[in-house]
Specification:
With about 260 residues, the protein is of the alpha+beta class. It contains 10 helices and 8 strands. The protein folds into 3 domains: about 70 residues, DNA Methylphosphotriester Repair Domain (3-Layer(aba) Sandwich), CATH 3.40.10; about 55 residues, Orthogonal Bundle (Arc Repressor Mutant, subunit A); about 60 residues, no CATH class.
Length: about 260
């Protein structure tokens, strides 16, 4: 199980992108854009314009990145429209996964809803959200599990309502996904020792917290000055900003 709370758009390998340009492959539209530094224009991979010299080509994950580099949209192929359309399709699929997280969802079923082949959906989904549909589904189930445990539901009910078919699978992944057993998470981490460090980074505030069972990496705004898990979880729900200590080790004696 993977808690995927932060997702970053990724580009295909450079070799694959250069092949897509050479073939003017429309299947790559929406996965990346390319800019030509001599003209100051960026295009979609299938653009019919004259091929540029390889040394003058730069690749970008999306139109916003190309424009931030000072390039302007090609008036012939309109890459922004293509990118927006792909993003809307993937967002629709992601919303469907969230709404049906407890159900069995196959790549083929999701591809039919998106009117794409399974391979194309897999590639486009990962390019837009940074993870595969399977990883996104696992993360949605994990969020449901956490929500159920926070609400005080029994462990069996929380696992079942999240869509996990086996309690043993949840327990085997709990150290990595929850940092503790489901029962300890349900109690608000009472009795757990949580060591954490918080830093400002180029990507924003970053928090790393660890128990003797697992490690959590996320937004440092999700934990309070004392470092208690119950406060961390309340801030996770409210997404509020708090005060920060640089490093700490705290034994959580508080329940929910």
């Amino acid at each position: 199980m993977t808690d995927t709370s932060t997702m970053t758009r990724k580009m295909p390998a450079e070799g694959a992108m250069r092949r897509a340009l050479a073939d003017r492959d429309p299947r790559s539209d929406g996965l990346f854009v390319y800019g030509v530094i001599t003209t100051g224009v960026y295009c979609r991979p299938s653009c019919p314009s004259r091929s540029a010299k390889p040394e003058n080509i730069r690749f970008f994950p999306d139109p916003a990145a190309a424009e931030s580099a000072g390039l302007r949209e090609c008036k012939r192929c309109r890459p922004r429209a293509s990118h927006d359309r792909v993003s809307r399709v993937i967002e629709t699929v992601a919303q469907y996964i969230e709404q049906h997280a407890s159900e069995r969802l196959t790549l083929g079923d999701l591809a039919k809803r998106a009117h794409l082949s399974p391979a194309h959906l897999q590639r486009r989904f990962k390019a837009v959200l940074g993870v595969s549909p399977k990883m996104y589904h696992d993360a949605a189930r994990l969020r449901r599990l956490k929500s159920g445990l926070k609400a005080g539901k029994s462990i069996v009910d929380a696992i079942a309502e999240a869509g996990f078919e086996s309690t043993s699978r949840v327990y085997s992944h709990a150290p990595r996904s929850l940092g503790m057993t489901p029962s300890a998470y349900r109690r608000g981490g009472a009795g757990e020792t949580i060591a954490y460090a918080a830093r400002d980074t180029a990507m924003g505030p970053l928090l790393m917290a660890a128990t003797d069972r697992g490690v959590y990496v996320g937004d440092r705004r999700l934990i309070d000055r004392k470092g208690t898990l119950s406060e961390c979880r309340r801030r996770e729900d409210r997404q509020e900003r708090g005060d920060w200590s640089e490093t700490s080790s705290h034994r959580n004696s508080r329940g929910r």
